[in-house]
């Protein structure tokens, strides 16, 4: 089946009804400017469902006033070619007015404590925007399974919690972080890096791996794990600032105190030049984790 580009909610609902008899629908929400990280999720969805839908929507509600909404990279033709090659059936690509028609939206989905930490501390409106648009997209697409990347570990935790607390139907499937050969997590925002910055950007993954290696060598104290991440990041002069360094419970994102439990999420967000980079790894005693 060729990829169908659908721009309106009404048309998507018709396509969804028409596809219902085929079997389960797998859904990959994105902001576009796709890379292998997104496509790996489409492939997972393709392998597990009769119908695969993706969305491309750069959601204004999840960007703060001084963030990169206007500059966010876009290339619909290239994205469509990649989606079609990966076997995606339906692409929902609405305008901002289609998702947020006047009068101004007054009812939001507002996650609590889980969204106040890490990314939420640095980006106060972010997860209210994410949870609201994910709810809208789930209500429009009505997926049986939704595919999110571990790359955005807090987003996974917030959506998982929202689905649980609000009894949202459907299954959440989390795909492993896809990385460049030097370890840098693929991201649409990597395009903002200068050539010089790109050369050192893998320090983020190196710092997180240093914590994982230390944990595997027997060190379980959360402070020691956070320290090795921070000192690795600080050893790179092009790291302009560190928003946070965290070792936290992967479900609640509560910061670990004392010794950490297996499965904790080590994460960080930093600035290199004007680019903000975000990454995480799961701390496991044995190799073979999905990050
Ligand atoms: P975005 O377009 O950045 O909103 O991302 C859309 C989806 O792709 C989210 O579930 C992301 O977590 C996921 N994603 C982004 N980058 C990667 C990556 N490098 N590996 C795996 N999944 C990713």
Descriptive terms for the model:
binds adenosine monophosphate; 6-stranded parallel beta sheet; alpha/beta; 291 residues
Q: Please identify the structural class as seen in this structure.
A: alpha/beta
User: Percent helix among the residues?
Assistant: 25-40%
Distance between the termini: 32 Å
Q: Quick one: biggest sheet?
A: 6 strands, parallel
Ligand kinds: adenosine monophosphate
Rg, Å, rounded: 19 Å
Report the order of strands and helices: EHEHEHEHHHEHEHHHEEE
Portion in strands: 15-25%
Q: What oligomeric state is this?
A: single chain
User: Widest sheet: strand order?
Assistant: 1-4-3-2-5-6
* Model regions low in confidence, pLDDT < 50 over at least 5 residues: none
**Overall morphology:** globular
Task: Please work out how many helical segments DSSP would assign.
Answer: 10
Task: Please count the beta strands (DSSP E, at least 2 residues each).
Answer: 9
Output mean pLDDT. Answer: 96
